[in-house]
Design brief:
This is Hypervirulence associated protein TUDOR domain-containing protein. The protein is mainly β and 72 residues long. The chain is built from no helices and 7 strands. It is globular.
């Protein structure tokens, strides 16, 4: 699983969605409560989340660092 400090904008990552592995890119580190990817994200500096974008569909999602695997 990815460590928070190792993820940055532009990183190539994978995550699980509906039983499949999705490939995409980190778009943003979220460190405060905000709206992203169509939902409210309750993030903080101590509990950040990441907005990612699927390479295949172009859809955005928000995940905690533990759900993302950094490639390369």
């Amino acid at each position: 699983m990815a460590k928070d400090e190792s993820l940055k904008k532009g990183d190539d990552v994978t995550w699980k969605s509906h039983g499949q592995t999705v490939h995409g890119e980190v778009e943003q580190k979220i460190t405060e409560r905000t709206e992203a990817a169509g939902r409210t994200v309750d993030a903080s500096p101590d509990d950040p989340q990441y907005k990612v974008k699927s390479d295949k569909t172009g859809r955005e999602a928000v995940h905690k660092p533990g759900a993302l695997n950094k490639n390369g």
